Amino acid sequence: MDFLFSCMKIRTKIVLSLAITAICIFISFGVFLTIKSKRDRLLMQSYHFELEASVRTAMRLNEKTMVNLAKDYTNWDEMVEFTFTKNESWSRSNLSTAPSIHSLSGLWIFNKSKRLIYAITDVTGMPDQSALFTDTIFHFLEVNGSGYFFSRQTDSLYEFAAATIHPTVGSFQSSPSFGYFFICRTMDRQAIRNLEEISGASVRLLYSPSSITKPADDSQITTTIQLHALSGSQVGSLIFVREQPLLKSYLSITNLTSLFYFCFALILLVAVSFMLYHWLNFPLKKITESLALEDSDLIKSIATQKNEFGQVALMIERFFRQKKELADIIYEKNEALASLADAESKNRAILSAIPDHLFRINLFGVISDHQIKNPGDFFMDPDQMAGRNFEEIMPASLSFQLHRAINDINKTKQPQSFNFSLPSPKDQVSYFEATISLTNLGDYLVVMRNITTRKEAELALYRLLEKEGALNRLKTYFLTTVSHEFRTPLSAILSNIQMLELYDEKWSADKKAPAFSRILQSVKQMNSLLNDLSVVARDEAGKFQITPVRFDIVLFLDELVRDTTNMLNPSPSVTIEITVRDFMVTMDKELVRYIFTNLLSNAVKFTPSDEQITVYLTDTTDNGISLQIRDHGIGIAPQDLPAIFEPFHRGENVAGYPGTGLGLSIVKRCVDLHKGNITIESVLGKGTVVTAVLPKLLN
Fold first, then answer.
1. In sequence order, what DSSP letters do the residues of 291-323 get, joined into one string?
2. Interval 409-468: pLDDT, tens
3. CB distance 443 to 361 below 8 Å
4. Residue 475 needs a FRET pair 20 to 30 A away by CA distance; which of 15, 214, 573, 590 works?
5. Domain 451-535, CATH number (from 3.40.50.720, 1.10.287.130, 3.40.630.10, 1.10.10.10)
6. Level-2 CATH architecture, domain 357-447
7. Which positions ≥6 away from 34 have C-beta within 8 Å?
8. Secondary structure of residue 445 in the 3-state scheme
């Protein structure tokens, strides 16, 4: 019933529509008048802009002509010379004819001291020199180099141009001026005609702003140029007037067009209203009843008409026919949608079970759908991905690989795979494996799997293999070094024993003593090597423990010096300088023995027998003790210092000296166990200083 009631109101609404149409016509007429007014104003402005542009061009050209003429005379070596010599013959041949040649009214030249040295005028009543050529104008020329201004005297207006005088080389910015040059032209009828020819408009010269009159009608376009003296005061005005007869005709035609438009719109509104009412009344009534009863028989007579109502009637009949067909289609669609929803739920369940990240990218590179299993793995908020181009949100490296994979798919129609890495939110690196394929709908399906765990396992295995290889190389080097170091003393022992067996009865006790000494020294060397190997083995096994005891450090060092020097032949010269206040310390005595014995042995080994070795024992500021050994031996090369504490490392210059390279690594380990530090300073060929700082009281 509501629908039937609405249809019955159609006729009333049509009448209201006519009223609204009338209002729209009048509004459109008002808009037309507004547009016409703005168009007329813009047209007038365009004529004004055109005239102003011509006028500005004419004035700039006139100014440029006068200034360039003045500069032509000032940038002249002979003019510079004239300011000093005042050569009358030169002025008669070069200056006296200038006013007549260039249509000038006057010409003045001042020297550097602003004194008039030459003047020529052909007009009576010219401006007074004292009133015109003031310090202000000279200062202006010194700053700007040239000037252009107007001056008014009684009923005459004069146009001036001036410039500073300079030689041909240089400019007023880079060299001082040698004088001042002025030229003057009367703003007479000839000057006005020149401006009229350039601007294309008639020109009037006025001396008073109050005498400016408005144009006679709209066909005259005017603009005013104010003429100023150098001080900025207005001395006159130029009125430029251009006749535009076509503009007046245009304005008359547009006014008639507006009146015609209004009358035509009013007549058209009345006629349309009358015809529309009679034409719509009967057909609309039948159409309304047909729609209300849903009976197409009521409009069969209207459907045979060859007008708009006949078309509407046919459309209504078609509507009733299609309504039934649409109902059947809707039923089938609902069945299909139910099946599609069921299939979509199954597919969604399958996709949800996949532990990978999924993206669907359309042909334009826009992410149309996505599934992020673990947002913490990825590079941005998943809620901001859909509907955005993958190039905007993905890192440049990943975007490049996706581009290349898409291009390969378009060429081969085969899925593509690649690996990439991304920084994770926890300042770590995540590794991914991506597979991209082409769907039946023409989109690209990207499957990304996080393989960080697998990658880390591969890297851990690779590091383990590297470590194992390094360990094998270390073992090989260890066996080679140790076997070599043992072979030398064993060979010495064997050779001396064989000599003693062979010459036992022939040699005296004094002759046998060196052989026994060499055997004893070789045994001590082997014992020292075994001790070093034992320390390394205990450290590797984690059994290297520290046991602090209290003892006299000075007595202990004296004992170690004697033991170390007695093992060597010839015995080196070792000096101990002690400045500690308290001799009693609490340290691991055995580790201190390792530290001092190895450092002193190295100093003795690499120092010539005639050089001095000094041991310094001093206190530190943090309740520690400093043990420093200074020698004058072969020194350590700079490239060997960074790795000097590594096991089995030996310098490039110790090839002829015995040793395994374990001593300093043992010293470094012992110092670290005491929570101390050790430093080495060395100059190749001049000696080495080793300083070990240890705490006096070890907890």
1. HHHT-GGGGHHHHTSSSHHHHHHHHHHHHHHHH
2. 888 888 888 787 777 656 677 777 888 888 776 788 888 777 777 777 777 777 777 766
3. yes
4. 590
5. 1.10.287.130
6. 2-Layer Sandwich (3.30)
7. none
8. strand
